[in-house]
Design brief:
The structure holds two protein chains of two kinds.
Chain A: E1 22-30, E2 35-44, E3 49-53, H1 60-67, E4 75-80, E5 83-84, H2 90-95, E6 98-101, H3 113-119, H4 127-140, H5 142-146, H6 157-168, E7 175-179, H7 187-202, E8 206-210, H8 214-220, E9 223-228, E10 231-237, H9 238-243, H10 245-251
Parallel strand pairs in A: 3-8, 3-9, 6-7, 7-8
Antiparallel strand pairs in A: 1-2, 1-4, 4-5, 9-10
Chain B: E1 5-14, E2 17-27, E3 32-36, H1 43-50, E4 58-63, E5 66-67, H2 73-78, E6 81-83, H3 96-104, H4 122-134, H5 150-163, E7 168-172, H6 180-195, E8 199-203, H7 207-213, E9 216-221, E10 224-229, H8 231-234, H9 238-245
Parallel strand pairs in B: 3-8, 3-9, 6-7, 7-8
Antiparallel strand pairs in B: 1-2, 1-4, 4-5, 9-10
Helix pairs in contact in B: 3-4, 3-5, 4-5
Classes of the chains: A alpha/beta, B alpha/beta.
């Protein structure tokens, strides 16, 4: 099996008509005790949702941390809209329109929801712009506006997730990295959070998310990437990866589609031809 | 039959927030009991009260016939009540294996097998290795726990609580952040441990996991029990659908958006 470029319907084709938002080539990265990412190359299509799935410890969170500048790669290049991120600080990367919502709860619990949202715009020097952005964000997430005066720590896990989403939009990013947005959320709230991701995408944001709830994540996404032991195992449309028999068995908890005939692309260039 | 674990009319407030109010939850001996409910409904608070991490404002906790209300965590553990945490608590500066051996020291406090075995002895190591293999992190046994990813830390914590061989195990979101295929594996293992006599109380949002594994499911909302019964009844209970599951359950065969 070879990693294949996305040629399927269901979203803007990767690297075809318009330039991708993010291009990564030959990325090697680790924490000192050995490499976690080995020669990772991938591209994230602009304007779409892309989901990274894979086993625990595959390097998914490390990949996001490297993209947002929290970790320095040992080798390889990362380009955001054609511009290299090499040597840039996390703050400079924020300035370029790339934000990262981390896996752990990251709100300041003793500050109000509004203060937390405003902190998302802390690198903005123009106060009028900050207020305009806040207005835009609160319009997009009316619930967050409702909670404005409450302490962030008093919100439930799902509510905090929505505030984190709202906060990350204060810089009007072009690319949003989301690390396991569904973790710890009840089924009902999970849908709200995924709806919010869809909403962000509908507003023109490119989204790269990591999801252990792989089926829900891939259903949400036009594109999917399977990461395994720090390497890209497969890329394709979200649907192709969902329906890929081997990936399904290994990482999605069993085959997903039953009685739907052969996986699309069995005769074409799409992934799935290995069986 | 007396419940193995019973929280009776427990109330607990944090400042102005009533986390639990007059809440009664029972875990039958030999059962796998699920505890579900919206974020903030009091599930973790109940775990904390049973295991002595929080004190009750009112109400009592029983292990069998013995009242253990407000017993400190080490006593609850010595009584055979093991637990994991939603946000993991491991020793980051010890290796993965050392973490396992710390937990294994407490093995046999309650049960009599291996009375002569010393902590860190061959038997403990064998069992620790086997559990690390089961959770898929045996390859990291010699690495500092610090270097594990979030999901791997959860898996270490699961292995860590099981190595102590408690009589009843409280699991706080064991499937959260864990790869779906591994979730099935974990589910099967819990089923096997249960068949050999271990009782489980499980908080989890993954409904396939809960409904597939549990004999009984208790639903909390606003700190009180709104429903309790077998999974097939609970998943169709209108109160549960409204408070927790939402109107349409997102199932695997749903059409793509």
């Amino acid at each position: 099996m070879h990693p294949t470029r996305d040629q399927a319907p269901g979203g803007p084709p990767a690297g075809a008509s318009h330039d991708p938002a993010l291009v990564i080539e030959g990325l090697v990265c680790g924490y000192g005790g050995g490499d976690v990412l080995h020669d990772v190359s991938l591209s994230v299509p602009a304007g779409a949702i892309t989901c990274v799935v894979g086993p625990n410890g595959a390097g998914k969170s490390t990949l996001l941390a490297t993209i947002s500048g929290l970790l320095r790669p040992k080798r390889g290049t990362i380009k955001l809209h054609g511009e290299s991120l090499a040597g840039k600080s996390p703050r400079q990367i924020l300035d370029m329109g790339l934000v990262h919502v981390q896996q752990n709860h990251s709100l300041f619990r003793d500050m109000t929801v509004r203060e937390n949202v405003e902190l998302g715009g802390y690198i903005l020097r123009d106060h009028a712009l900050l207020l305009r952005r806040r207005g835009y964000v609160e319009e997009m997430f009316p619930q967050v506006a409702q909670w404005a005066g409450q302490k962030a720590g008093s919100l439930s896990g799902g509510q905090q997730r929505l505030v984190e989403f709202a906060r990350c939009l204060m810089l009007d990013p072009s690319l949003v990295l989301l690390d396991e947005p569904s973790m710890g959320l009840s089924p009902k709230v999970l849908r709200t959070v995924f709806d919010a991701a869809r909403l962000m995408n509908a507003q023109g944001k490119t989204i790269l998310l990591v999801e252990q709830n792989a089926r829900a994540g891939l259903r949400l996404s036009a594109h999917g990437i399977v990461l395994e032991n720090g390497r890209v195992r497969l890329t394709g449309s979200g649907r192709e990866i969902l329906e890929h028999p081997e990936i399904g068995a290994l990482y999605l908890g069993g085959a997903v589609t039953r009685a739907s005939g052969p996986a699309p692309g069995d005769g074409g260039g799409a992934p799935g031809a290995a069986h | 039959m007396t419940a193995l674990l019973r929280a009776e009319r427990v109330s607990k407030a944090f400042g102005g927030v009533q986390a639990l109010s007059d809440c009664t939850v029972e875990v039958a001996r030999g059962s796998i009991t699920g505890l579900i409910g919206p974020n903030g409904s009091g599930k973790t608070t109940l775990f904390n009260i049973i295991t002595g991490y929080e004190r009750v404002d009112a109400g009592d906790v029983y292990a069998g016939d013995r009242k253990i209300t407000n017993a400190p965590p080490e006593r609850a553990f010595a009584l055979g009540i093991g637990r994991t945490f939603q946000l993991t608590r491991i020793f980051p500066r010890l290796t993965v294996m050392e973490n396992m051996l710390v937990a294994a020291q407490h093995r046999g406090v309650r049960r009599w097998h291996n009375p002569l075995a010393r902590a860190g002895g061959q038997a403990d190591r064998r069992r620790a290795t086997e559990l690390l293999e089961f959770t898929g992190i045996a390859g990291h046994a010699k690495a500092l726990a610090d270097t594990l990813s979030y999901g791997q830390r959860k898996l270490l914590e699961l292995a860590y609580v099981l190595v102590a061989d408690p009589e009843v195990v409280l699991l706080d979101e064991p499937a959260g952040g864990v790869n779906p295929s591994l979730i099935q594996h974990i589910s099967a293992r819990i089923g096997a441990l249960n068949a050999s006599g271990t009782t489980f109380l499980i908080v989890e949002h993954n409904m396939d996991f809960v409904m597939g594994l549990c004999d009984r499911v208790t639903v909390l909302d606003y700190g009180t029990v709104v429903a309790s019964g077998p999974p097939e009844i609970i998943r169709n209970d209108p109160r549960v659908l409204d408070a927790y599951l939402g109107t349409t359950e997102e199932d695997d065969d749903a059409p793509d958006p």
